[in-house]
Design a protein that fits this description.
The chain has 172 residues and is α/β, with parallel strands linked by helices. 33% of the residues lie in helices and 23% in strands. It has helices at 35-47, 52-61, 90-102, 123-135, 150-153, 156-159; strands at 4-9, 12-17, 22-27, 70-73, 79-82, 110-114, 144-148, 165-168. It has a three-stranded antiparallel sheet with strand order 1-2-3, covered by helices on one side. It has a three-stranded parallel sheet with strand order 6-7-8. A hairpin with a 5-residue loop joins β4 and β5. It is elongated.
Length: 172
């Protein structure tokens, strides 16, 4: 059994120190794909006897990388969450989508996804996997998905009757 276990949502991580029977909650806007790194850092800091409050304060104040789940508030009251930085892994992209599904808001949610060009021979299968996964997401969670690029456009016919999925390819 582990000394440290955790449970995560898109906006927080609950860390349980089993050895000392203590719970810690870290509020964070990185999606779950990165939470294991956060827990590893937390565990190492505990090992070096750094106070949990200092660890939490440091993690919560960490400046996020531009383009990696960064939140931008609009004057209209809307919000843009940008998670476009180096999206070349379909599993991480799906984790981002899941984070958007779980993001707490009463407002409409619209997701825009672009091609992942660094996948080589895996490209067609990876883009199909993402389209298939989002086609099963409840429209109450995310109202619309916009897919841009030639790799998503290969699958346009299959999804053209889906009300929440729009696929576009632009030639520049």
């Amino acid at each position: 059994s582990s000394d440290i276990v955790y449970a995560s949502l898109s906006t927080k991580v609950t860390i349980l120190d089993c050895k000392n029977d203590k719970n810690y909650i870290v509020n964070i806007l990185y999606h779950e794909g990165f939470h294991h790194c956060l827990v590893a850092a937390f565990t190492v800091a505990l090992f070096f006897k750094i106070q949990p409050k200092m660890i939490i304060d440091t993690i919560e104040s960490f400046k996020k990388i531009a383009g990696r789940f960064s939140v931008h508030h609009l004057k209209s009251g809307g919000m843009i969450i940008n998670d476009a930085y180096n999206a070349v892994n379909p599993i991480v992209m799906l984790k981002s989508v899941q984070a958007f599904v779980e993001f707490p808001t009463y407002k409409k949610k619209i997701v825009v996804l672009g091609d992942m060009f660094d996948l080589g021979s895996l490209s067609e299968k990876a883009h199909a996997m993402i389209l298939e996964a989002v086609s099963h997401i409840d429209p109450q969670s995310i109202e619309k998905f916009f897919f841009c690029g030639e790799n998503f456009a290969m699958h346009k016919k299959q999804y053209e009757n889906e009300n929440k999925i729009f696929i576009a390819h632009f030639d520049f």
